[in-house]
Design a protein that fits this description.
This protein is mostly helical. It is built from two helices and no strands. It is rod-shaped and about 95 Å long.
Length: about 110
């Protein structure tokens, strides 16, 4: 589900090493210098708008991850209580078997 190189999860987190994914806009300088175009892509209003639009997506992803962790924790707790319940049941059965054996030996 999480592949590297997507818009919200880039290959690298260093802006200078990222490839601009947008076409040059009217706000960017039209020089032949690739570095000037590259830095302008990160300060353009379009890029800020895209980042703002991705905020709810990142928030939703964080909430889903938190819910998944909570569900996994709850499952572990349920398994633990079930294991304890089965252990108590086995201990009671063992005591009954001992009593039955003791009663059989006494008679």
């Amino acid at each position: 589900m999480t592949t590297t190189g997507t818009i919200d999860r880039p290959d690298t987190h260093i802006p200078q090493k990222q490839v601009p994914t947008m076409k040059p806009s009217a706000y960017e300088p039209s020089t032949g210098d690739a570095r000037a175009r590259h830095t302008a892509a990160y300060t353009s209003p379009q890029n800020r708008n895209r980042e703002m639009q991705l905020i709810p997506e990142a928030l939703a992803r964080a909430q889903v991850e938190a819910r998944l962790q909570e569900a996994e924790s709850e499952r572990r707790a349920m398994r633990l209580t079930a294991a304890r319940r089965m252990q108590r049941r086995a201990e009671r059965a063992s005591l009954r078997a001992r009593r039955a054996l003791a009663m059989a030996v006494m008679q």
